[in-house]
Please model this.
Amino acid sequence: MVDAGPVEARTGTEEPTASARIVQIRQRIDEIDNAMIALWQERAALSQEVGATRMASGGTRLVLSRERKILERFRVALGADGTQLALLLLRAGRGPL
Model:
């Protein structure tokens, strides 16, 4: 591992206990980020498969009622940011409209 400089430059504090805790928290954040990226990619691939299967069988490209349910689920759980997140997830799975 390359040293990024003084502890304060890496964590924002010179206090050793706080700095060590920040490093631990950031490690967990990085783990969560990696899991979220993997789940995002899996979800997009599954959504694309659903769309391709539906269209190959003569169905529609989109099922708007399903998209509305997803948007609502994220909005209820996460508020306005949830709606934006859901829109990004939907786009990743189906492409832009």
Notes: The CA atoms of residues 6 and 46 lie 45 Å apart. The chain has a mean pLDDT of 91.
